[in-house]
Write a structure and sequence with these properties.
By secondary structure, this protein is an alpha/beta fold. It has eleven helices and 16 strands. InterPro entries: LRR_dom_sf.
Length: about 450
Amino acid sequence: MALSSTSTMTNIAESGFPITSIPSEILCYIFTLVPVSPRTDSSPIPVVGPRGSRVLSGPWIFGQVCSQWRALALALPALWTPLTIFATTLTAREYNLLHVQLERTREAPLDLHIRFSYYSRKEFDTLLHDLVNHSQRWRSLHFEADGSRAFESEAFSTLGPDSLPSLQELVFGGTRADTLAKYDFFKDAPALRRVVLGAQGGAQVWPIVLPWAQLTVYKATYPQPVKHFHILALASNLVECDIDGGYSQRDDISQVFCTLPKLRRLAISKPSLLRHLRAPALQSLYSVGPIQDVQAFLDSSGCTSTLRELTLAECKAPSHELLDLFGRTRALTKLAVDPIYPFDETMVSAFTAPDCLCKNLRSISVTDFKDGLDRHAFTDMIASRFQNFPGIRRPYFVGVYSGRVRMKAAGHRIRELGIEVELMTAKLGKQAVRDWRGYSNLTREQS
Protein backbone atom coordinates (compact mmCIF):
# COMPACT_ATOMS: atom_id res chain seq x y z
CA MET A 1 0.00 0.00 0.00
CA ALA A 2 1.48 3.30 -1.08
CA LEU A 3 1.92 6.08 1.47
CA SER A 4 2.51 9.73 0.71
CA SER A 5 5.45 9.91 3.12
CA THR A 6 8.24 7.36 2.88
CA SER A 7 9.54 8.35 6.31
CA THR A 8 6.67 6.48 7.94
CA MET A 9 7.36 3.24 6.07
CA THR A 10 10.37 2.02 8.05
CA ASN A 11 9.55 0.94 11.60
CA ILE A 12 7.29 2.06 14.37
CA ALA A 13 9.29 3.16 17.38
CA GLU A 14 10.30 0.33 19.67
CA SER A 15 8.46 0.78 22.94
CA GLY A 16 8.23 -2.78 24.22
CA PHE A 17 4.54 -3.24 23.38
CA PRO A 18 3.67 -5.97 20.83
CA ILE A 19 1.37 -3.66 18.90
CA THR A 20 4.31 -1.41 18.06
CA SER A 21 6.04 -4.26 16.23
CA ILE A 22 3.34 -4.49 13.57
CA PRO A 23 4.81 -3.41 10.21
CA SER A 24 3.60 -0.05 8.97
CA GLU A 25 2.20 -1.53 5.78
CA ILE A 26 -0.04 -3.91 7.74
CA LEU A 27 -1.20 -1.16 10.09
CA CYS A 28 -2.14 1.04 7.16
CA TYR A 29 -4.12 -1.80 5.63
CA ILE A 30 -5.95 -2.32 8.94
CA PHE A 31 -6.73 1.40 9.12
CA THR A 32 -8.44 1.28 5.74
CA LEU A 33 -10.63 -1.62 6.90
CA VAL A 34 -11.93 0.12 10.03
CA PRO A 35 -15.51 1.24 9.31
CA VAL A 36 -16.36 4.86 9.92
CA SER A 37 -18.93 5.31 12.69
CA PRO A 38 -22.43 6.03 11.33
CA ARG A 39 -23.07 9.71 10.89
CA THR A 40 -26.18 10.91 12.66
CA ASP A 41 -28.49 13.72 11.63
CA SER A 42 -26.73 15.99 14.10
CA SER A 43 -23.07 15.71 13.17
CA PRO A 44 -21.10 14.99 10.00
CA ILE A 45 -18.02 14.21 12.09
CA PRO A 46 -18.07 10.64 13.48
CA VAL A 47 -17.88 10.46 17.27
CA VAL A 48 -17.42 7.60 19.70
CA GLY A 49 -20.73 6.87 21.36
CA PRO A 50 -21.68 8.37 24.74
CA ARG A 51 -18.23 9.72 25.55
CA GLY A 52 -19.09 13.05 24.01
CA SER A 53 -18.68 14.99 20.82
CA ARG A 54 -15.03 15.73 21.60
CA VAL A 55 -13.96 12.10 21.17
CA LEU A 56 -13.73 11.53 17.44
CA SER A 57 -13.99 8.18 15.70
CA GLY A 58 -12.20 6.88 12.60
CA PRO A 59 -10.17 8.14 10.88
CA TRP A 60 -9.53 10.81 13.53
CA ILE A 61 -9.15 8.27 16.32
CA PHE A 62 -5.92 6.84 14.89
CA GLY A 63 -4.10 10.08 15.66
CA GLN A 64 -5.28 9.93 19.27
CA VAL A 65 -3.51 6.62 20.01
CA CYS A 66 0.14 7.59 19.66
CA SER A 67 2.43 9.75 17.57
CA GLN A 68 3.42 6.84 15.33
CA TRP A 69 -0.20 6.03 14.47
CA ARG A 70 -0.85 9.69 13.86
CA ALA A 71 2.06 9.84 11.41
CA LEU A 72 0.71 6.81 9.55
CA ALA A 73 -2.82 8.21 9.38
CA LEU A 74 -1.58 11.53 8.05
CA ALA A 75 0.52 9.73 5.45
CA LEU A 76 -2.50 7.88 4.06
CA PRO A 77 -4.79 10.35 2.22
CA ALA A 78 -7.32 7.64 1.33
CA LEU A 79 -8.39 7.48 4.99
CA TRP A 80 -9.77 11.02 4.83
CA THR A 81 -11.64 11.00 1.52
CA PRO A 82 -15.23 10.37 2.80
CA LEU A 83 -16.72 13.81 3.56
CA THR A 84 -20.25 14.44 4.85
CA ILE A 85 -21.95 17.82 5.24
CA PHE A 86 -25.45 18.61 6.53
CA ALA A 87 -27.19 21.84 5.58
CA THR A 88 -28.92 22.57 8.89
CA THR A 89 -26.45 21.36 11.52
CA LEU A 90 -22.95 22.15 10.27
CA THR A 91 -21.26 24.11 13.07
CA ALA A 92 -18.18 26.30 12.94
CA ARG A 93 -16.17 23.61 14.75
CA GLU A 94 -17.24 20.93 12.29
CA TYR A 95 -16.54 23.29 9.41
CA ASN A 96 -12.96 23.70 10.62
CA LEU A 97 -12.52 19.95 11.12
CA LEU A 98 -13.86 19.20 7.65
CA HIS A 99 -11.45 21.71 6.17
CA VAL A 100 -8.59 19.96 7.94
CA GLN A 101 -9.90 16.65 6.63
CA LEU A 102 -10.13 18.04 3.10
CA GLU A 103 -6.50 19.18 3.30
CA ARG A 104 -5.43 15.71 4.46
CA THR A 105 -6.95 14.10 1.37
CA ARG A 106 -4.32 15.89 -0.73
CA GLU A 107 -4.96 14.74 -4.31
CA ALA A 108 -6.91 11.55 -3.48
CA PRO A 109 -10.42 10.97 -4.96
CA LEU A 110 -13.26 12.33 -2.81
CA ASP A 111 -16.45 10.55 -1.69
CA LEU A 112 -19.07 13.16 -0.78
CA HIS A 113 -22.38 12.88 1.09
CA ILE A 114 -24.32 16.15 0.93
CA ARG A 115 -27.61 16.57 2.76
CA PHE A 116 -29.87 19.44 1.74
CA SER A 117 -32.78 20.66 3.87
CA TYR A 118 -35.33 23.47 4.15
CA TYR A 119 -32.59 25.93 5.10
CA SER A 120 -28.81 25.93 5.30
CA ARG A 121 -26.21 27.45 7.58
CA LYS A 122 -23.58 29.76 6.14
CA GLU A 123 -20.88 27.18 6.97
CA PHE A 124 -22.66 24.68 4.72
CA ASP A 125 -22.86 27.09 1.78
CA THR A 126 -19.22 28.09 2.17
CA LEU A 127 -17.96 24.53 2.42
CA LEU A 128 -20.07 23.47 -0.56
CA HIS A 129 -18.37 26.14 -2.68
CA ASP A 130 -15.00 24.87 -1.46
CA LEU A 131 -15.88 21.30 -2.41
CA VAL A 132 -17.01 22.37 -5.87
CA ASN A 133 -13.52 23.77 -6.38
CA HIS A 134 -12.31 20.17 -5.98
CA SER A 135 -14.87 18.67 -8.40
CA GLN A 136 -12.06 17.23 -10.52
CA ARG A 137 -11.46 14.79 -7.65
CA TRP A 138 -15.07 13.75 -6.96
CA ARG A 139 -15.31 9.96 -7.14
CA SER A 140 -18.75 9.43 -5.59
CA LEU A 141 -21.52 11.92 -4.91
CA HIS A 142 -24.45 11.12 -2.62
CA PHE A 143 -27.20 13.75 -2.55
CA GLU A 144 -29.89 13.58 0.13
CA ALA A 145 -32.77 16.04 0.49
CA ASP A 146 -35.54 16.53 3.01
CA GLY A 147 -38.12 19.20 3.72
CA SER A 148 -38.95 21.57 0.89
CA ARG A 149 -35.48 22.17 -0.53
CA ALA A 150 -34.30 20.38 -3.64
CA PHE A 151 -30.77 19.50 -4.69
CA GLU A 152 -29.93 23.06 -5.62
CA SER A 153 -27.11 25.44 -4.83
CA GLU A 154 -25.48 28.38 -6.54
CA ALA A 155 -22.19 26.56 -6.10
CA PHE A 156 -23.17 24.06 -8.79
CA SER A 157 -23.57 26.78 -11.40
CA THR A 158 -19.80 26.81 -11.89
CA LEU A 159 -19.72 23.16 -12.96
CA GLY A 160 -19.33 22.52 -16.66
CA PRO A 161 -18.70 19.72 -19.18
CA ASP A 162 -15.16 19.05 -17.95
CA SER A 163 -15.79 19.46 -14.22
CA LEU A 164 -16.34 15.81 -13.25
CA PRO A 165 -13.67 13.66 -14.94
CA SER A 166 -13.38 11.23 -12.00
CA LEU A 167 -17.03 10.83 -10.94
CA GLN A 168 -17.95 7.13 -10.89
CA GLU A 169 -20.98 7.01 -8.60
CA LEU A 170 -24.08 9.21 -8.27
CA VAL A 171 -26.82 8.68 -5.66
CA PHE A 172 -30.02 10.63 -4.98
CA GLY A 173 -31.92 9.88 -1.77
CA GLY A 174 -33.91 11.35 1.09
CA THR A 175 -37.56 12.23 1.56
CA ARG A 176 -37.57 14.61 -1.37
CA ALA A 177 -35.85 13.88 -4.65
CA ASP A 178 -36.43 16.80 -6.96
CA THR A 179 -35.13 17.71 -10.38
CA LEU A 180 -31.64 18.70 -11.34
CA ALA A 181 -32.71 19.62 -14.85
CA LYS A 182 -31.19 23.09 -14.55
CA TYR A 183 -27.81 21.45 -14.01
CA ASP A 184 -26.77 19.23 -16.91
CA PHE A 185 -23.19 18.70 -15.76
CA PHE A 186 -23.66 14.98 -15.07
CA LYS A 187 -24.27 14.02 -18.69
CA ASP A 188 -20.63 14.74 -19.54
CA ALA A 189 -19.08 12.72 -16.69
CA PRO A 190 -16.88 10.26 -18.64
CA ALA A 191 -16.21 7.88 -15.72
CA LEU A 192 -19.78 7.65 -14.37
CA ARG A 193 -20.79 4.00 -14.00
CA ARG A 194 -23.13 3.60 -11.00
CA VAL A 195 -26.39 5.50 -10.44
CA VAL A 196 -29.12 5.31 -7.78
CA LEU A 197 -32.18 7.47 -8.43
CA GLY A 198 -34.34 7.80 -5.32
CA ALA A 199 -34.55 5.87 -2.06
CA GLN A 200 -36.10 2.42 -2.24
CA GLY A 201 -39.86 2.75 -1.89
CA GLY A 202 -39.52 6.50 -1.47
CA ALA A 203 -39.77 9.65 -3.53
CA GLN A 204 -38.77 9.42 -7.15
CA VAL A 205 -36.20 11.59 -8.84
CA TRP A 206 -37.56 13.63 -11.69
CA PRO A 207 -36.07 12.98 -15.14
CA ILE A 208 -32.38 13.71 -15.40
CA VAL A 209 -29.97 13.56 -18.31
CA LEU A 210 -27.17 11.05 -17.74
CA PRO A 211 -24.75 9.12 -19.98
CA TRP A 212 -26.95 6.02 -19.87
CA ALA A 213 -24.96 4.03 -22.43
CA GLN A 214 -21.86 3.91 -20.23
CA LEU A 215 -23.59 2.93 -16.97
CA THR A 216 -23.00 -0.50 -15.46
CA VAL A 217 -25.27 -0.13 -12.39
CA TYR A 218 -28.78 1.38 -12.46
CA LYS A 219 -31.10 1.44 -9.43
CA ALA A 220 -34.19 3.63 -9.39
CA THR A 221 -37.62 4.19 -7.89
CA TYR A 222 -40.31 5.16 -10.39
CA PRO A 223 -44.05 4.41 -10.03
CA GLN A 224 -44.40 4.44 -13.81
CA PRO A 225 -42.74 1.41 -15.44
CA VAL A 226 -42.41 3.26 -18.74
CA LYS A 227 -39.79 5.53 -17.15
CA HIS A 228 -37.68 2.53 -16.25
CA PHE A 229 -37.94 1.03 -19.72
CA HIS A 230 -37.14 4.32 -21.42
CA ILE A 231 -33.84 4.37 -19.52
CA LEU A 232 -33.12 0.66 -19.93
CA ALA A 233 -33.46 0.99 -23.70
CA LEU A 234 -30.50 3.39 -23.60
CA ALA A 235 -28.40 1.40 -21.10
CA SER A 236 -27.31 -1.74 -22.91
CA ASN A 237 -24.09 -2.07 -20.87
CA LEU A 238 -25.78 -2.58 -17.50
CA VAL A 239 -24.32 -5.31 -15.31
CA GLU A 240 -26.61 -4.70 -12.32
CA CYS A 241 -30.15 -3.33 -12.31
CA ASP A 242 -32.75 -2.72 -9.58
CA ILE A 243 -36.23 -1.74 -10.77
CA ASP A 244 -38.13 -0.46 -7.75
CA GLY A 245 -41.77 0.63 -8.05
CA GLY A 246 -43.42 0.14 -11.42
CA TYR A 247 -46.86 -0.34 -9.88
CA SER A 248 -48.68 2.34 -11.87
CA GLN A 249 -51.27 1.00 -14.32
CA ARG A 250 -51.62 4.22 -16.29
CA ASP A 251 -48.91 3.43 -18.82
CA ASP A 252 -49.44 0.97 -21.65
CA ILE A 253 -46.25 -1.07 -21.94
CA SER A 254 -47.73 -3.98 -23.86
CA GLN A 255 -45.47 -3.23 -26.82
CA VAL A 256 -42.38 -2.44 -24.73
CA PHE A 257 -39.53 -4.93 -24.81
CA CYS A 258 -35.92 -4.63 -23.71
CA THR A 259 -32.89 -6.93 -23.86
CA LEU A 260 -29.92 -6.34 -21.56
CA PRO A 261 -27.16 -8.57 -22.93
CA LYS A 262 -24.58 -7.96 -20.17
CA LEU A 263 -26.88 -7.92 -17.14
CA ARG A 264 -25.69 -10.24 -14.37
CA ARG A 265 -27.87 -9.17 -11.43
CA LEU A 266 -31.50 -8.04 -11.50
CA ALA A 267 -33.83 -6.99 -8.66
CA ILE A 268 -37.46 -6.19 -9.40
CA SER A 269 -40.46 -5.20 -7.27
CA LYS A 270 -43.19 -6.11 -9.75
CA PRO A 271 -42.45 -9.48 -11.39
CA SER A 272 -44.99 -8.95 -14.20
CA LEU A 273 -42.46 -6.49 -15.67
CA LEU A 274 -40.23 -9.49 -16.36
CA ARG A 275 -42.46 -10.21 -19.36
CA HIS A 276 -40.85 -7.24 -21.07
CA LEU A 277 -37.23 -8.09 -20.27
CA ARG A 278 -34.57 -10.50 -21.49
CA ALA A 279 -31.21 -11.02 -19.77
CA PRO A 280 -29.27 -13.92 -21.31
CA ALA A 281 -26.19 -13.44 -19.08
CA LEU A 282 -28.15 -13.19 -15.80
CA GLN A 283 -26.63 -14.93 -12.78
CA SER A 284 -28.56 -13.39 -9.86
CA LEU A 285 -32.27 -12.58 -9.54
CA TYR A 286 -34.23 -10.91 -6.73
CA SER A 287 -38.01 -10.90 -7.14
CA VAL A 288 -40.93 -9.87 -4.93
CA GLY A 289 -44.30 -11.63 -4.83
CA PRO A 290 -45.66 -14.27 -7.25
CA ILE A 291 -43.23 -16.42 -9.23
CA GLN A 292 -45.23 -17.32 -12.35
CA ASP A 293 -43.44 -14.69 -14.41
CA VAL A 294 -40.07 -15.61 -12.92
CA GLN A 295 -39.96 -19.03 -14.57
CA ALA A 296 -41.14 -17.68 -17.92
CA PHE A 297 -38.52 -14.91 -17.78
CA LEU A 298 -35.69 -17.34 -17.02
CA ASP A 299 -36.77 -19.65 -19.83
CA SER A 300 -37.09 -16.87 -22.41
CA SER A 301 -33.72 -15.43 -21.36
CA GLY A 302 -32.11 -18.84 -21.66
CA CYS A 303 -30.56 -18.71 -18.19
CA THR A 304 -32.72 -21.15 -16.21
CA SER A 305 -29.99 -23.78 -15.98
CA THR A 306 -27.16 -21.27 -15.44
CA LEU A 307 -28.65 -18.98 -12.76
CA ARG A 308 -26.40 -18.90 -9.69
CA GLU A 309 -28.34 -16.86 -7.14
CA LEU A 310 -32.09 -16.63 -6.52
CA THR A 311 -33.88 -14.56 -3.88
CA LEU A 312 -37.66 -14.70 -3.54
CA ALA A 313 -39.06 -12.04 -1.19
CA GLU A 314 -42.65 -12.08 0.07
CA CYS A 315 -43.03 -15.19 -2.04
CA LYS A 316 -46.69 -16.12 -2.52
CA ALA A 317 -46.12 -19.40 -4.33
CA PRO A 318 -47.26 -22.76 -2.91
CA SER A 319 -44.74 -25.54 -2.38
CA HIS A 320 -45.33 -27.34 -5.67
CA GLU A 321 -44.62 -24.19 -7.69
CA LEU A 322 -41.44 -23.54 -5.75
CA LEU A 323 -40.26 -27.12 -6.15
CA ASP A 324 -40.85 -26.93 -9.89
CA LEU A 325 -38.77 -23.75 -10.10
CA PHE A 326 -35.95 -25.11 -7.93
CA GLY A 327 -35.92 -28.33 -9.91
CA ARG A 328 -35.13 -26.39 -13.07
CA THR A 329 -32.58 -23.94 -11.62
CA ARG A 330 -30.04 -26.69 -11.07
CA ALA A 331 -26.93 -24.49 -10.97
CA LEU A 332 -28.01 -22.43 -7.95
CA THR A 333 -25.27 -21.82 -5.39
CA LYS A 334 -27.20 -19.28 -3.30
CA LEU A 335 -30.89 -19.46 -2.40
CA ALA A 336 -32.90 -17.14 -0.15
CA VAL A 337 -36.65 -17.64 0.29
CA ASP A 338 -39.13 -15.51 2.23
CA PRO A 339 -42.30 -17.61 1.80
CA ILE A 340 -45.80 -16.52 2.71
CA TYR A 341 -46.61 -20.20 3.27
CA PRO A 342 -44.45 -22.16 5.76
CA PHE A 343 -41.35 -23.97 4.51
CA ASP A 344 -43.09 -27.31 4.99
CA GLU A 345 -41.97 -30.95 5.22
CA THR A 346 -42.22 -31.43 1.47
CA MET A 347 -39.82 -28.55 0.86
CA VAL A 348 -37.35 -29.76 3.50
CA SER A 349 -37.38 -33.31 2.13
CA ALA A 350 -36.77 -32.06 -1.40
CA PHE A 351 -33.47 -30.48 -0.30
CA THR A 352 -32.31 -33.47 1.77
CA ALA A 353 -29.34 -35.38 0.35
CA PRO A 354 -28.62 -37.58 -1.49
CA ASP A 355 -31.64 -37.27 -3.80
CA CYS A 356 -31.98 -33.53 -3.44
CA LEU A 357 -32.63 -30.41 -5.47
CA CYS A 358 -29.95 -27.79 -6.11
CA LYS A 359 -26.94 -30.00 -5.40
CA ASN A 360 -24.54 -27.04 -5.76
CA LEU A 361 -26.08 -24.91 -3.00
CA ARG A 362 -23.48 -23.19 -0.79
CA SER A 363 -25.75 -20.61 0.87
CA ILE A 364 -29.30 -21.25 2.15
CA SER A 365 -31.51 -18.62 3.81
CA VAL A 366 -35.12 -19.15 4.88
CA THR A 367 -37.63 -17.02 6.78
CA ASP A 368 -39.99 -18.52 9.33
CA PHE A 369 -41.71 -15.51 10.86
CA LYS A 370 -44.82 -17.60 11.63
CA ASP A 371 -42.67 -20.18 13.46
CA GLY A 372 -44.08 -23.06 11.44
CA LEU A 373 -40.78 -24.59 10.37
CA ASP A 374 -39.80 -28.02 11.72
CA ARG A 375 -36.43 -26.86 13.04
CA HIS A 376 -34.97 -30.32 13.63
CA ALA A 377 -36.03 -31.59 10.20
CA PHE A 378 -34.44 -28.50 8.65
CA THR A 379 -31.24 -29.13 10.61
CA ASP A 380 -31.22 -32.78 9.48
CA MET A 381 -31.49 -31.55 5.89
CA ILE A 382 -28.50 -29.25 6.31
CA ALA A 383 -26.49 -32.02 7.99
CA SER A 384 -27.30 -34.45 5.16
CA ARG A 385 -25.39 -32.21 2.76
CA PHE A 386 -22.22 -32.78 4.79
CA GLN A 387 -22.18 -36.57 4.36
CA ASN A 388 -19.90 -36.59 1.30
CA PHE A 389 -22.51 -37.76 -1.16
CA PRO A 390 -21.13 -37.62 -4.73
CA GLY A 391 -21.97 -34.41 -6.58
CA ILE A 392 -23.36 -32.57 -3.53
CA ARG A 393 -21.51 -29.50 -2.28
CA ARG A 394 -21.40 -28.50 1.37
CA PRO A 395 -23.05 -25.21 2.36
CA TYR A 396 -20.84 -22.51 3.85
CA PHE A 397 -23.73 -20.31 5.09
CA VAL A 398 -27.16 -21.00 6.61
CA GLY A 399 -29.60 -18.32 7.72
CA VAL A 400 -32.94 -18.81 9.50
CA TYR A 401 -35.07 -15.76 10.33
CA SER A 402 -37.89 -16.68 12.69
CA GLY A 403 -40.67 -15.00 14.64
CA ARG A 404 -40.54 -15.42 18.41
CA VAL A 405 -39.30 -19.01 18.68
CA ARG A 406 -35.51 -19.32 18.67
CA MET A 407 -33.63 -22.17 16.99
CA LYS A 408 -32.04 -23.26 20.31
CA ALA A 409 -30.75 -26.86 20.06
CA ALA A 410 -31.37 -27.03 16.31
CA GLY A 411 -29.32 -23.90 15.82
CA HIS A 412 -26.52 -25.31 17.97
CA ARG A 413 -26.39 -28.41 15.76
CA ILE A 414 -25.99 -26.25 12.65
CA ARG A 415 -23.18 -24.27 14.27
CA GLU A 416 -21.38 -27.51 15.12
CA LEU A 417 -21.02 -28.11 11.38
CA GLY A 418 -18.40 -25.36 11.37
CA ILE A 419 -20.11 -23.01 8.92
CA GLU A 420 -21.26 -19.41 9.06
CA VAL A 421 -24.71 -19.26 10.65
CA GLU A 422 -27.14 -16.35 11.04
CA LEU A 423 -30.11 -17.01 13.32
CA MET A 424 -32.36 -14.04 14.02
CA THR A 425 -35.83 -13.43 15.37
CA ALA A 426 -38.52 -10.79 14.94
CA LYS A 427 -37.34 -7.24 14.30
CA LEU A 428 -33.67 -7.96 13.59
CA GLY A 429 -34.57 -10.82 11.31
CA LYS A 430 -36.98 -8.74 9.25
CA GLN A 431 -34.38 -6.03 8.81
CA ALA A 432 -31.83 -8.61 7.65
CA VAL A 433 -34.32 -9.96 5.12
CA ARG A 434 -35.01 -6.45 3.81
CA ASP A 435 -31.27 -6.10 3.28
CA TRP A 436 -31.27 -9.11 0.95
CA ARG A 437 -32.18 -6.78 -1.87
CA GLY A 438 -29.05 -4.67 -1.51
CA TYR A 439 -30.64 -1.58 -3.05
CA SER A 440 -28.30 0.80 -1.26
CA ASN A 441 -25.19 -1.33 -1.79
CA LEU A 442 -22.85 -0.23 -4.53
CA THR A 443 -19.74 -2.28 -5.20
CA ARG A 444 -16.88 -0.08 -6.29
CA GLU A 445 -15.07 -1.41 -9.32
CA GLN A 446 -11.47 -2.15 -8.66
CA SER A 447 -9.03 -0.11 -10.69
